[in-house]
Amino acid sequence: MGKTDVASMDLAELQVFFDTLGEPKFRAKQLFEWLHQKQVDTFAKMTNLPQKLREKLEEEATIGGVQMVEKLVSRVDGTRKYLFALENGSVIESVLMQYDYGNTVCVSTQAGCRMGCQFCASTLDGVERSLTAGEMLAQVYTIQKDLGQRISGVVLMGSGEPLDNYDAVLRFIRLLNDANGQNMGQRHMTLSTCGLIAQIYRLAKEQLQITLAVSLHAPNDEIRRQIMPVARANPMEELLQACVDYAAQTKRRITYEYAMMQGINDSDDCARELAKRLRHTLCHVNLIPMNPVKERAYTKSSDQRVQRFAHLLQQDGVETTIRRRLGSDIDAACGQLRRRYMQK
User: Fold this and answer.
1) Could you confirm whether 55 is annotated as catalytic?
2) Is 212 helix (H, G, I), strand (E, B) or coil?
3) Quick one: which of 81, 203, 216, 316 has the fewest CB in 10 Å?
4) Do the bridges between strand 110-112 and strand 102-106 make them parallel or antiparallel, or are there none, so unpaired?
5) Which of 96-102's residues contact partners 24+ apart within 8 Å by CB, and which partners?
6) pLDDT in tens, the chain (344 residues)
7) Nearest to 165 by CA among 106, 215, 111, 241
């Protein structure tokens, strides 16, 4: 049998684990604090645990971490992009984005992605595997230590579909939120999905206070199915209804992500159709100037077109912002750095 992944366990599970080792339960809280407050990555550093217990943990347990392979720092805005290796040799990306209000990490939930969105580099080679909660946490903790500053927010927007790795992602959120660990408020966490309807309904029942961001990228099914294969099994009318129901249950506003692609989804008619669908719902539209991906044929919309699109939505009563483009000089778009590394 393999070793127990203690970095992915909550405090109650750790107490059960320590009981099986014949150790008192208070040791579980000590271990939890070492992992999630002090964020150490070896048992040897846990100096308030007896030496024999540390040796036992080395034999029985593992701390699922990541190894930094490469780090790029933008000369434009200070954004940092990290390439991490997992224990099985897969590689993932994480991005540190620094804002006036704090530091946010964009976390990957899978190595690669199987959703097949036509404008995204992460989907080009499919999915290798899903990450554990411990591996997701390790991205945040490693970047926090590298930066030397507290990470105040996370966005689950790296490679992978978070709701395709549902249980591990929920575990990650709850561990990051735990008062005995990082104690990050759920309102500082955003989960981005390409729109898996059944999982959105399931997520609503969790009664989390995270922000749900739905990658819409089109005003209708005809366009959406061209660029997002997932739309074939998740029709827009049903998806938008799931989002309305989610907002009603959680009292949390939905964010709709909309990557602007020249000649595909950026016309005035697209803006008006989108506004008609979204007006009078608890939502916010985030327009994204698309990062170009050389393997894809799509071109980002002009700044003027993005501004016009935003104006039409706002004019029709839909709250809209334009995402500030970060890390344009360091392959900061999702999947680009990983793709370049794998092709070496």
Assistant:
1) no
2) strand
3) 316
4) unpaired
5) 96/143, 96/147, 96/151, 97/326, 97/327, 101/152, 102/150, 102/151, 102/152, 102/153, 102/188
6) 689 999 999 999 999 999 999 999 999 999 999 999 999 999 999 999 999 999 999 999 999 899 999 999 988 888 999 999 999 999 999 999 998 889 999 999 999 999 989 888 888 888 999 999 999 999 999 999 999 999 999 999 999 999 999 999 999 999 999 999 999 999 999 999 999 999 999 999 999 999 999 999 999 999 999 999 999 999 999 999 999 999 999 999 999 999 999 999 999 999 999 999 999 999 999 999 887 666 667 899 999 999 999 999 999 999 999 997 766 666 655 555 655 555 45
7) 111
The candidate with the shortest Cα–Cα distance to 319, out of 273, 287, 344, is 287
Write down the residue that tokens 């595997």 correspond to.
129
Based on the residue annotation, tell me whether 243 is a catalytic residue of this protein.
Answer: no
Instruction: Determine the angle formed by the axes of helices 236-250 and 268-278, rounding to 10 degrees.
Output: 50
C-alpha to C-alpha distance for 142 and 138, rounded to whole angstroms: 6
125: DSSP letter: T
**Residue 177 and residue 187: Cα distance in Å, rounded?**
10
DSSP 147: H
pLDDT tens per residue, range 142-164: 999 999 999 999 999 999 999 99
Q: What's the distance, CA 244 to chain centroid?
A: 22
Distance between CA 110 and CA 195 in Å, rounded? 16
Provide the CA 54 distance to its chain's centre, in angstroms: 33
Q: Which of 70, 87, 93, 106 is catalytic?
A: 93
Beta bridge partners of 129: 111
Residue with tokens 């799931």: 242
